[in-house]
Design a protein that fits this description.
Radius of gyration: 14 Å
Number of strands: 7
Number of domains: 1
CATH topology: Rossmann fold
CATH architecture: 3-Layer(aba) Sandwich
Structural class: alpha/beta
Shape: globular
Order of helices and strands: EHEHEEEEHE
Strand order of the largest sheet: 3-4-2-5-6-1-7
CATH superfamily: DNA polymerase III subunit chi
Largest sheet: 7 strands, parallel
Mean pLDDT: 91
Length: 143
């Protein structure tokens, strides 16, 4: 059974926290896919991941859906895919069907104070996932 790590955030601005989490996972040696609902938002995250911290470097690519990639971090939008054989999935938006994340050894989701984030734990559990909650993005990535 896949485990979902639900990161509870104090505010509603998730983009910076997504970048911090992706950086932690990358630095721990994990290959990562970041799922974003639509292409325009994925493009914004792609740019932000290059610039969110002056001392940060997270090599990544924005997947166009056409081929597998060797980049350690890949941003996908629309249909959930794993073009870089990643072990960790970071859910940047609410997945329409949480069951689509089955098969990922490690799933990270972020829940802020926004109304759209209400009920995330229950949705993951209803889809058959074990859920562990943590506050914010810690100094080290779980797992």
């Amino acid at each position: 059974m896949s485990e979902v790590i639900l990161h509870r955030l104090a505010g509603s601005k998730k983009a910076l926290e997504v970048c911090r989490l992706v950086e932690q996972l990358y630095r721990s040696g994990k290959r990562v896919v970041v799922w974003i609902a639509d292409g325009s938002r994925a493009g914004v995250l792609d740019e932000y991941l290059w610039t969110f911290a002056q001392s940060s470097f997270v090599p990544h690519a924005l997947w166009d859906g056409s081929a597998e990639l060797d980049d350690p971090v890949v941003i996908v939008s629309g249909t959930l895919a794993n073009p870089n054989n990643a072990a960790a999935l970071v859910v940047g938006d609410r997945l329409p069907d949480p069951a689509a994340a089955r098969g990922w050894p490690e799933v990270h989701d972020l829940a802020g104070a926004a109304a759209e984030d209400a009920g995330k734990r229950e949705a993951w559990e209803a889809a058959g996932f074990a859920v562990t909650e943590t506050r914010g993005i810690g100094a080290e990535a779980p797992g």
